[in-house]
Amino acid sequence: MPTINVYQQYFEADCTHNGVKRHAASVLLISNSECGNISYEVAVSFFPHNDADDFAVSYDAYFSRTVYEAPGRRSKKREKELLDNLRLIADELATEAQGVIFWDRPLTDEQRG
Predict the structure, then answer these.
(1) How crowded is residue 95: how many other Cβ atoms within 10 Å of its Cβ?
(2) Is 42 helix (H, G, I), strand (E, B) or coil?
(3) Are 101 and 44 in contact (CB under 8 A)?
């Protein structure tokens, strides 16, 4: 099953999960396709980021939601619509994790796949 990170970017964040303070989050839009079906998921992974070089993402604080699933293939138009709503959905996931993403404090440039 081809999995593609359509979008990924790291931001400063605040979250405590499993007793560990996390200072950053990786935010992703992921595309999965298999047997003529496509799905997209928004994911947020909080990680410690204890210094400027610490990008060791820990997956115990990984939260995701499938936002689209149907027969078909990747679509630039659909991906644009999903990216337009990415922050809203990522904020909902962060709230469920009792965390917050600081969108105005990116740690990296966005990556597109």
Answers:
(1) 12
(2) strand
(3) yes
Read off the tokens for 62: 């990984």
Tell me the β-bridge partners of 3: 32
Kindly state the greatest CA–CA separation across the chain. 43
Task: Report how far residue 94's alpha carbon sits from residue 60's, in angstroms, rounded to the nearest whole number.
Answer: 14
Model pLDDT for residues 60-100, shown as the tens digit of each residue: 899 999 999 999 989 999 999 999 999 999 999 999 999 99
59-81 burial by CB neighbour count: b if 16+ within 10 A, else e?
A: eebbbeeebbeeeeeeeeebbee
Q: How far, in Å, CA of 43 to CA of 16, rounded?
A: 17
Contact 15, 61 (CB under 8 A): yes
| pTM strictly above 0.70 | yes
Question: How far apart, in whole angstroms, are the C-alpha atoms of residue 5 and residue 45?
Answer: 14
Decide which of 33 and 59 is more confident: 33
